[in-house]
């Protein structure tokens, strides 16, 4: 009687002594998350990234694709600071992909600045929490390389009496995929840069097709214009005093025509105090 009853129950679809599935599937998770707002999702992920290494690793896979968020520019280095010292200092913040102090090709001496690329974006974030660092007895300044050299807030370069119009260089035909640090590396050869390069999108780090530099001295600006056509990585870039752009027309003419009015927008009053590469 009992066996017959049990068989009938099984025939009717009742199954006994079978463990209940307790694990959610990916599809189950997706259905649950459909009711979560983007803001709530961000809050959840922020906590998960901090608490769970596996979540951080997955986020890194995406975030690390953008090298502009991992590459730092360090200026104000002492002449004795070398690449190994730079690696030792910044290696404290995370695993490094590359670190280099830029040196003069002729003399082998440091130019007073360098670049550090972290393997992961969080390493760069940690290093930027204290942008000013004492290295070999000197205060060096750290920033995202894609940001260029930015002056302080406020008015003109009050510490430099030389008219900014004699020190400001406009560079045309900058490729959209050329990095700010690459063009900076080239123009540093002519003298100390007070500010620049401007002309790069702050969000993406991509070039807008032009660049603007302010040298610390008029002599350095003149030196950069001895050969107005620069060949950088196979690309020809045309240079002139930025002030000349207001006099010209189309290419080979004015900077204003080639920058969609950006030159007019970047006047002496927008440049902060000197914060260039020192050494």
TrEMBL record:
Gly residues composition bias: residue spans: 269-279
Domain (RRM) ranges: 70-147, 167-247
Stored InterPro entries: Nucleotide-bd_a/b_plait_sf, RBD_domain_sf, RNA-binding_reg, RRM_dom
Species annotation: Nicotiana tabacum
Domain of life where this protein originates: Eukaryota
Keyword RNA-binding in annotation: yes
Residues covered by region (Disordered): 248-279
Gene3D superfamilies: 3.30.70.330
Keyword set, alphabetical order: RNA-binding
GO molecular-function terms, A-Z: mRNA binding
Protein name stated in the entry: UBP1-associated protein 2C-like
UniProt key word Iron-sulfur: no
Any one annotated GO CC term: nucleus
